[in-house]
Design goal:
The protein has one domain. The chain is elongated and about 60 Å long. The protein is built from 4 helices and no strands. By secondary structure, it is mostly helical.
Length: about 120
C-alpha cells in the first residue's frame, strides 16, 4: 500500500483501531514531542532560520495532532459501531475518545495560558 492510500485509510478511520490509537496517536505524538523538547532545549539564541524552522515545526505538530486525533476518533467510532453489532463491549473505543478529548482540552488550556 502506498503512502497516500495509508494516509487516507488513517484519516477516514479505516485503519485498525489498536494501531491508530497506540501508534498513530500515542507513540508518534510522543516521539514528535520529544524531538521538539530536545530541539528547543538546545537553542539558546535563535537565528532567523531557526525561528522559521521552529514555526514550520510547530505547524507540523499541530497538523499531525489534528490528523492523528481525527483518524483515531473515526477508528474508535468504527470500533464502537462494530462491537454494537456483535453485542460486545465498546469500552476501549469510548475510552480512546475520552483520552483524545482530555488531551485536546489540555492543549487548548495550555495555549490559552500562554496568551
Amino acid at each position: 500500500m502506498n503512502l497516500k492510500n495509508r494516509i487516507i485509510e488513517i484519516w477516514t478511520g479505516k485503519y485498525s483501531f489498536g494501531r491508530s490509537f497506540w501508534i498513530i496517536f500515542i507513540l508518534n505524538i510522543h516521539i514528535i514531542q520529544l524531538f521538539a523538547i530536545f530541539w528547543l532545549s538546545g537553542q539558546n539564541k535563535f537565528s532567523v532560520f531557526e525561528d522559521l524552522l521552529s514555526v514550520f515545526f510547530s505547524i507540523f505538530i499541530a497538523t499531525y495532532y489534528v490528523f492523528a486525533s481525527v483518524g483515531t476518533w473515526r477508528s474508535a467510532t468504527q470500533y464502537i459501531n462494530l462491537n454494537k453489532l456483535k453485542k460486545l463491549k465498546k469500552f476501549w473505543g469510548v475510552l480512546a475518545k475520552f483520552i483524545i478529548l482530555m488531551i485536546t482540552f489540555k492543549i487548548i488550556f495550555q495555549l490559552y495560558e500562554m496568551l
